[in-house]
Amino acid sequence: MATLTAWKFDRPDGADEASQTLRDLAKQQLITIYDAATVTWPESAKKPKTRQLPASPVPVR
Questions:
Q1: Could you tell me the sign of the dihedral formed by the alpha carbons of 10, 12, 14, 19, in that order?
Q2: From what superkingdom does this record's organism come (predicted)?
C-alpha cells in the first residue's frame, strides 16, 4: 500500500528532526522508506531548498 504524506513544522529544525526519526525507524526495520524528501524555506532565502532522503534497503526474502 502506497502512502503520501506532507508535514508542516512550527520550528525551522522540525523537518530535520523528523527525517532523523524516520531514518532511525528504518534502520530498526520498523518502517520502509521508498522515497522521501524535505523542502525547507528559511525566511531569509529567496527560494526553498529541497533534499532527497535515502531509501530504506529492501530486505531480500
A1: positive
A2: Bacteria
